[in-house]
Write a structure and sequence with these properties.
29% helix, 4 strands, Translation Initiation Factor IF3, 2 helices, 28% strand, alpha+beta
């Protein structure tokens, strides 16, 4: 897969569920459809829950990767429609 252009980066290190999902959802919902958000989390629960929840909200999870010791990078495209 080609390198994805990131429109907004959000570092949620130190945050826990459900705040990681809530803050991620607010950030992706603020973007135009098709724009891409990168979220960094530092706990495994959030690394699983955030992408699953955002996908359930209609957004496209592009990747979930380890980003160093105890950190994950979640890349999501806003799946909203243009009005």
């Amino acid at each position: 897969m080609a390198e994805q252009t990131i429109d907004v980066e959000l570092d949620l290190s130190g945050e826990v569920c459900p705040y990681t999902f809530i803050k991620s959802k607010m950030a992706i919902d603020a973007l135009d459809p098709g724009k891409v958000l990168s979220v960094t989390v530092d706990n495994s629960e959030s690394a699983g829950n955030v992408p699953r929840s955002l996908s359930g909200e209609g957004h496209e999870v592009l990747s979930v990767d380890k980003a160093g010791s105890g950190r994950w990078r979640i890349v999501v495209r806003n799946g909203g429609t243009v009005e």
